[in-house]
């Protein structure tokens, strides 16, 4: 992700950033991974005897999808509502950052299984599309992680924060 884009999101309300992440990353990953799993199964089935076939790629993508789905659900149900309310809980944020490190390790293994996404000479359209999709997933997931780690999970300056109880506004639960 480029510096200008990161700076743009640092200047936007947290709720807008969360909505951007949900629409442009969470929804996209939920579409990308099942498609890549199916395509990988096809390529592995048809070209399994080729020495450069991505053996085990579909299983790895399936594992990634399960891990990522669990991670995104925790963000959507627990962490994002807290952040949107101006609460920056260090414990849940630390857990998400640790899981981001695990996702990065899974991406590295993905590249190994996909032979650095270099198709062999004469590769079919499905194999080519698979590796293009894997590269897109890698770029998207890394951008997603960077945006969360370096912008969303960083407590904003006081001028950008949502006012908390006793700071001039009330959500109605104080009474």
UniProtKB/TrEMBL annotation:
<feature type="domain" description="Hemerythrin-like">
    <location>
        <begin position="19"/>
        <end position="153"/>
    </location>
</feature>
<dbReference type="InterPro" id="IPR019903">
    <property type="entry name" value="RIC_family"/>
</dbReference>
<dbReference type="InterPro" id="IPR012312">
    <property type="entry name" value="Hemerythrin-like"/>
</dbReference>
<keyword id="KW-0479">Metal-binding</keyword>
<dbReference type="Pfam" id="PF01814">
    <property type="entry name" value="Hemerythrin"/>
</dbReference>
<protein>
    <submittedName>
        <fullName>Regulator of cell morphoproteinsis and NO signaling</fullName>
    </submittedName>
</protein>
<keyword id="KW-0963">Cytoplasm</keyword>
<dbReference type="GO" id="GO:0005737">
    <property type="term" value="C:cytoplasm"/>
</dbReference>
<keyword id="KW-0408">Iron</keyword>
<dbReference type="GO" id="GO:0046872">
    <property type="term" value="F:metal ion binding"/>
</dbReference>
């Amino acid at each position: 992700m480029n510096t200008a884009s990161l700076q743009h999101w640092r200047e936007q309300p947290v709720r807008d950033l969360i909505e951007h992440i949900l629409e442009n990353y969470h929804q996209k990953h939920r579409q990308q991974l099942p498609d890549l799993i199916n395509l990988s199964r096809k390529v592995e089935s048809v070209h399994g005897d080729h020495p450069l076939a991505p053996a085990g790629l579909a299983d790895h993508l399936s594992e990634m999808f399960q891990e990522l789905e669990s991670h995104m659900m925790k963000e959507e149900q627990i962490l994002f509502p807290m952040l949107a309310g101006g609460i920056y809980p260090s414990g849940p944020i630390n857990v998400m950052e640790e899981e981001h490190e695990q996702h990065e390790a899974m991406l590295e293994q993905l590249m190994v299984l996909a032979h650095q996404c270099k198709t062999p000479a004469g590769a079919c359209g499905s194999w080519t599309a698979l590796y293009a999709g894997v590269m897109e997933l890698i770029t998207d997931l890394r951008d997603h992680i960077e945006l969360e780690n370096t912008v969303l999970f960083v407590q904003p300056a006081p001028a950008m924060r949502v006012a908390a109880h006793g700071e001039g506004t009330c959500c109605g639960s104080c009474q």
